[in-house]
Specification:
globular; 25% helix; single chain; mainly alpha
């Protein structure tokens, strides 16, 4: 897999649920989600 740092101050709880995102389904995402992902992956 690949890790993309989305924010410099990301904090992780010691315990919690796992969150992941399969971009293979990006065509089905709300446009706002895709815009957010693009901004995080390719910042200005």
């Amino acid at each position: 897999g690949e890790f993309i740092m989305v924010d410099r101050d990301v904090k992780m709880k010691k315990k919690g649920n796992i969150y992941s995102l399969n971009e293979g389904y990006a065509k089905d995402f709300d446009p706002a989600i895709n815009e957010y992902l693009q901004r995080k992956k390719f910042p200005p």
